[in-house]
Amino acid sequence: PIAIEAAKLTKIYGSGNTEVVAMRDASMQVAQGEVVALLGPSGSGKSTFLTAVGLINPPTSGQITIGDKLVLDGATAHANLRSFRRRHIGFIFQKSNLIPFLTAVENVQIAMQLNGQSKRASYRRAMELLDYLGVADRAANYPSMLSGGQQQRIAVARSLANSPSVILADEPTAALDGQRGRQVMELFAKVAHEQGAGVIVVTHDHRSLDVFDTTYEMEDGILNRTKTTTMEVSK
Ligand code: ADP
Ligand code: ADP
Question: Which residues form a coiled coil (predicted)?
Answer without folding.
Answer: none
